[in-house]
Amino acid sequence: MIAFWYVVFAIISTITNLGFQFLSFFVYDGYLALYVAMFIGTLAGLVLKYVLDKKYIFFHETKSKKDDGKKFFLYSLMGVFTTFIFWGFEIGFDTLFESENAKYIGGLIGLFIGYIVKYNLDKKFVFKD
After folding, report:
1. How much is the pTM?
2. 55-64 long-range CB contacts below 8 Å, 24 or more apart?
3. What's the angle, vertex CA 4, arms to CA 10 and CA 2, rounded to 5?
């Protein structure tokens, strides 16, 4: 059942990430707009996914704000590697294909792969018992 909810939360976080990216292009569409959008989307997806994973996937109750901060830092650190996977696919698809939607398709593929890797990293290093 945890795998089901992990997939549901990954989908919700992916929609949040790509949605924030899409919205950021309405605010800014200038120099390096794709990178600005990717950063904003990544941050939005990260915070949401942390809250959902902590509470409903790993059932972790923080002892204090300091403990929560440490967990979020470790969670974010594990996300650095998976973010490079995600960004690599998004940038790669944007570069290789001339379609406006290519970056979103690449981002979707990258997020899917990244979330699988991230679950295993979080289980082993962040929310270990």
Report:
1. 0.81
2. 56/5, 56/9, 57/2, 57/5, 57/6, 57/9, 57/119, 58/122, 58/123, 58/126, 58/127, 60/127
3. 100
Residue 26's CB is within 10 A of a number of other CB atoms, namely 7
34: amino acid identity, one letter: L
Distance CA 48, CA 34 (A): 21
Taking alpha carbons only, the member of 18, 36, 19 closest to residue 111 is 18
Q: Token pair for residue 42?
A: 């990544």
pLDDT tens digit sequence for 82-95: 889 988 999 999 99
Tally of domains in the chain: 1
The contacts of residue 48 (CB under 8 Å, 6+ apart) are 12, 13, 16
List the domain range (segments joined by +) for residue 66: 2-126
